[in-house]
Amino acid sequence: MANWNDHVDHVLIDEAELREIVSRLAAQIDSDYSGEDKNPILVGVLKGSVTFMTDLMRAMKCPAQIDFMRVSSYGNSTVASGNVNIILDLNRPNLPNEDIIVVEDIVDSGRTLKYLVSYLLNKGARSVRTVTLLDKPERREVDFTPEYIGKEIPNAFVIGYGLDYAEKYRTLPYVGVIRSDKI
Ligand code: PRP
Q1: 50: Cβ below 6 Å to ligand 1?
Q2: pLDDT at position 81, please?
Q3: Number of domains in the chain
Q4: CA-wise closest residue to 132 among 167, 106, 97
Q5: CA dist 71 to 19, 48, 174, Å?
Q6: Burial class (CB in 10 A: 0-12, 13-18, 19+), 162
């Protein structure tokens, strides 16, 4: 049986540190959304956010709904491109009453989240914030900063905990740097 752990050059964020990051982010969100009328919708951006989102939502105490969107960007597997297309949208009649927190695994160029925030605000959402597990500020191409950031990382190609290379490795329980000969 193939062992994807063997395709990892080194572990960047182990499971214990991931739990600490998720707890800290959940506490920050709980504190900011503590008002009676603040029941945010966590909107996960498929597919990379799935692992992070399922951990985050269970670490939060604040009542929250969940939903998902899927977007595509054009380009090859390792270089994010400039275009964002919505493949799966929210289907909710009540967006003007909603406080949305978009959940991402990683911010790279910043184009996906910048686009989604303005898209959801244009659809009438009362507020839109963003939370990302990982941030690669070195790679930013547009002016965008998430409200909640788990960890800034260097510009290495990371896999695991939801993150893929060519759709592989999402099931690894930690974030690792892929071996260069596997790209
Ligand atoms: C990744 C990631 C973000 C986006 C970030 O998604 O999950 O959605 O790229 O890049 P950006 O800041 O340059 O816009 P990807 O397109 O790889 O899809 P996936 O979530 O299905 O892996």
Answers
A1: no
A2: 53
A3: 1
A4: 106
A5: 27, 11, 24
A6: buried
Per-residue pLDDT of 108-125, as tens digits, reads: 999 999 999 999 999 999
Q: Give the span between the Cα atoms of 34 and 52, in whole angstroms.
A: 22
Task: Let me know if residue 134 belongs to a domain.
Answer: yes
Q: Is 96 exposed, middle or buried (0-12, 13-18, 19+ CB in 10 A)?
A: exposed
pLDDT at residue 93 in the model: 82
Structure tokens at 58: 């269970």
Q: Which residues pair with 106 in a beta bridge?
A: 134
pTM: 0.95
Question: Is 108 an annotated catalytic residue?
Answer: yes
Quote the ligand 1 centre to 165 CA distance (angstroms). Answer: 11
Domain encompassing residue 149: 15-30+38-158
10: left (phi over 0), alpha (psi -120 to 50) or beta: beta
Predicted local confidence at residue 77, as pLDDT:
47
Q: Which residues of the chain have pLDDT under 50?
A: 76-78
User: What is the atom index within ligand 1 of the atom nearest the CA of 77?
Assistant: 17
CATH code, domain with 67: 3.40.50.2020
